[in-house]
Amino acid sequence: MPSVMLFIASCLWGVCIPIMKALGTEQSILAPLAGSMGGSAASLCVRFGMAAAVVLLVSRRSPFGIRPAEWKHGSILGGVTAVSMFLQVDGLNYTNASTAGFLIALYCVLVPLFTWAVGRRRMTPVLFLCCALVVAGMAALTGFDPRTVSLGRGEWENLGAACLFAGQILWVDRVPRNQVDPSRLTFVLCASVSMACLAALVFLPGGLPALFQAHASARAAWLTLFLALLGTTLPFLIMNRFQSMVGPVAAGFIYCIEPLTAALGAFFLPELLVRNPALYANEAVTIRLAIGGALILAANLLLLRDRADPVSQAPD
Question: Of 20, 56, 76, 173, which one has the fewest beta carbons inside 10 Å?
C-alpha cells in the first residue's frame, strides 16, 4: 500500500511538469514585467497558499494545535521545497518539460549517493555504473558539448532542484512518526513555501502586484487550482504519510516514474493548455530524448538490483 501511494504521488508530480510550463507561458503574457523569477514566485505563493488552506479544511485540524516537532520539520521541509520548486518552475522557462522531468529524476540516484557519503551505504561497482549512466544520460538529454563545458540556465536550475529534492526525501525519513501528524506537517510545509515566496516577491521584478496579475485569467486560475490540489496537496500528504514506511532509497526508486509521466504529458498536454499552440507546442520523441531517458532509467533499474544485494548496504 505505501509503495502504491508513492507511485501515485510520483505520477501526479510528473504530469504537473508540463502543466507548470503551460502556466508559466500564460503568466508571461499576464505579467510580462515580473519576468520568469517574479512569475515563478507569484505562482508558487498562490499555489502553496491554496494547498495549505485545503489541508486545513480537509484534515479539520487547528493550526493552533501544531506541535514543536511539526513546526521544526515542516519549516525545514518548507524551506527546502521553496528553493527547489522555485528552481524547477523558473527552469521550465528555459528548457522543455520532458528534459526537465528527466533531470529532476536525478534525485532517484542522488539519494543513495548521499546515503553513501554519510556512511550509510557502500560504494559498489553497480552504484558507480549507475552514476556513469546518469552522467551519460544527462549529456544526451541536454546536448552537452564537452568542448564548451556548459549547460543552459534551465538545465542547471533543474539539477539544483534535483539535489534539493534528494535532501528533502532524506529529511522526510528523519521525521519522527510518533511525534508528527502528517496533515499538520504538510500544512506547515505548504504555508512555509507560500510565505517564503511572498517575502521573495518584495525584492523580485513585478513585486507584490504580480500576485494578482499572474492569475488574472481563467486559464491561469484553473491551472493553479489543479496544481494546488493534485500537484501539491495530495502528493505532499502522501509523501509525508507513507514515505517513512518504505525508506528514502526505496522511495527514490518509486519516484523514478516522474520523468516518464512528465514526458507522456508533454506529448499531448501543452497545446491543450495554452492560448495558442505556437506558444507551447507538444513535444515529440527524439533520438536524443530517447537515448538520454533510456540511460537514466537504466541507472534507476540497476539501483534496484544494488539495493537487493545485502553486501551493498553498509552496517548501521
Answer: 173
User: For residue 249, how many other CB atoms are within 10 A of its CB?
Assistant: 22
Grid coordinates representing 20 are 507548470
Contact call for residues 98 and 283 (beta carbons, < 8 A): yes
DSSP code for 145: -
The pLDDT of residue 310: 39
What's the pLDDT tens digit per position in 125-146? 887 888 788 778 777 766 666 5
Interval 239-266 mean pLDDT: 83
What are 27's three cell numbers? 503568466
What single letter denotes the amino acid at residue 140? A
Residues 214, 216, 221, 227: what is their CA dihedral angle, to the nearest 10 degrees? 0
Q: How far apart are CA 60 and CA 51, in angstroms?
A: 14
Cα 89 from chain centroid? 9
Q: Which of 281, 197, 265 is nearest to 13 (CA)?
A: 265
pTM of the model: 0.85
